[in-house]
Predict the 3D structure of the following.
Amino acid sequence: MHIFEKRWSTALSADKKEYTQFVMRQDETVESFLQFDPERGIALQHTNGSLAGIPFGVKDNLAVDSYQLTCGSKILSGFTSPYTATAVQKLIDNGAVVVGKTNLDQFGMGSSTDTSAFKKTNNPWDTERVAGGSSGGSAAAVAAGLVPFALGTDTGGSVRQPASFCGIYGLKPTYGVVSRYGLTAYASSLDVVGVLSKTVDQSRIVFNLMKGQDERDNTSIMHPGSSNGGAVKRIGVLTAQKGVLHPDVEKSYAEAVGRLQQNGYTTREIDIETMKYVVPVYYTIATAEASANLARYTGIRYGYAAQDAKSSSDLMEESRNEGFGDEIKLRILLGTYVLRSGFQDQYYHRAQKIRTAIRNEFSRLFNEVDVILMPVFPTPPFKHGDSELTPFQQKVADKYTCAANLTGFPAISIPSSVENGLPVGVQLIAPPFEEERLFAVARVCEKDFPSPDSPLYKTSWS
Amino acid sequence: MDVMDLKITAELAKLALTEEETAKLSEEVARMLEYFSSMSEVDVTHLEPTNYVLQKENRTRIDSEKNESDIPDKILGNAPRREDRFIVIPNVL
């Protein structure tokens, strides 16, 4: 069994014309790419390697030489990447070919991809619904069969939640094991580069090629490998409180637990006391770090510049106000506030301490179980706009995903069922550097329930 | 958070908000801060802060010149206003 179906290896050579037309036609409906331009990727191509000729998409907050880098924001419209991110370069070095840059919530801030300044990405299962976010473009592109895998980034769930919404696999690696050189920073103590793919083995091969310490990213660390060869026997199942999950998600979650038991895993219900603090802690830390990271957009060195500013101070303030979207402004203000003198102890420092308590509790749990299962998101894919989930409700719903970012532990979102025509996923979390455990359990589940094909998924270019 | 507090914060964040935005955002920021208040019930006396996970110490590199050929020019090419290799900004004085 090949990791990539045969059609992918000729998509950019013998079948280039058919493939390119196929993507352009499909993407009129899905709108997953902000820039689809395989020729640029072919110009950067290395011909040999385990991914030779395989096309992939890159979230538009990761730099790829000569492609645009907008982060989905007007403040970076027109920006051209001067170099390629290390994670992307390693895949190029192994033969893979970038075909374009995928849509995202502005700077990775959102759960719907609707905060993008450029377009709304539609879920290939139901185009009235969002593909999730912030890596919604990458998820939709994979689920629509435009690429076999795409890179995303995950600060609070931005790879796992869209993967779940689109019925595919989404890996958030251990913090630090994939270089972030060339990733536009959102929240530096949380950001990781991840993979979205149609099969488990695709995520695994891509992750293994990307990982490793990088002299260009001093926060990157070496991956020591799995301590126990990825063996999993005991799975802790987070107790799903009544009424917290949408009925479809609750049903799918129970189905996933049953599947694990049928495959011989010992499951045990667990409660995580600190779970109720993960969202406030996450948003305090993420916005604080974002307010510092986004201070670099001034309209001076690059990006959008306000016209006719009278002074350099006006230039900064006006460029930022005209260039940033509403969600970005909210988060910058919140982050600036929690870091203001007099408020730090109450918010930022307190959040960092509770973050320690959350890590401690997860570490303790991993003395008793090998992997933890929990939901990805409390609802199925929601409709565009505020009618089903307001932006505030979307933030509260990050509860299950952001714990893995606060702890730095690896996590994977896997498809668990299709309910009323929409895919639902569940999430597995492992101790640091134990991605192999995630792949092992995900593979077992994949045998019983592989990634379901969306109504738009096609296996030929005609 | 009241509107005055938001205006001070916006100034620190270098955001020239309109009156309408100020009103809307002060409401949204207040709602998030209210939501954050649950953190106050946790006893944090014996907890050390987590700044970074997994990485034990700060790593630095040698501050040496790198010759990355055409990258400086590509970076300058992204400047909104430029004269030769200088970036143009409004008068400071």
Observations:
- The CA atoms of residues 111 and 394 of chain A lie 7 Å apart.
- DSSP finds 15 helices and 13 strands in chain A.
- The mean pLDDT of chain A is 96.
- Chain A touches chain B through 71 residues (CB under 8 Å).
